[in-house]
Amino acid sequence: MTRFPRPDARAGAVAASLAALALLVTLAWWRPRSILAVVLALLCVLLVMVAGVSLTELRQRRTEARERTGDGPAEWPTPGVTGLSGVDADTLEALDSRDALRAVQERRRNAGGVSDR
Predict the structure, then answer these.
(1) Which residues of the chain have pLDDT under 70?
(2) DSSP annotation string for 28-73
(3) pTM for this predicted structure
(4) What's the pLDDT score for residue 49?
């Protein structure tokens, strides 16, 4: 017994996207006023979800292939926070900019309404 080759994730995503687009155009042009419209709309949503999952699978395979060859990073770097990896929650709360804003507003109120601008 021969097996058919499994289609690529990209081909599945393209096929599902085209089918969803065809259903959407059919719904817009035909405008059925029955349960058929609901079924077609749900089928359109299902096809869009299949296309999204296929694209996610393709990205995952690409990332795994990059990690195997050593081309890409094995782990994403944390954006913006490089030296604060060992900071606890209390310190982060103390560094909160809202607290600094409240302190400035409190100083302005205590100054008797005089603005420093």
Answers:
(1) 1, 71-97, 99-101, 104, 112-117
(2) HHH---SHHHHHHHHHHHHHHHHHHHHHHHHHHHHHHHHHHHT-S-
(3) 0.55
(4) 96
Structure tokens at 28: 């817009």
Cα–Cα nearest to 46, from 25, 27, 19: 19
Long-range contacts of 41-48 (CB under 8 A, 24+ apart): 44/20, 47/16, 47/17, 47/19, 47/20, 47/23, 48/16, 48/17, 48/20
The identity of residue 14, as a single letter, is: V
| 40-57 exposure pattern, b = at least 16 Cβ within 10 A, e = fewer | beeebeebbebbeebbee
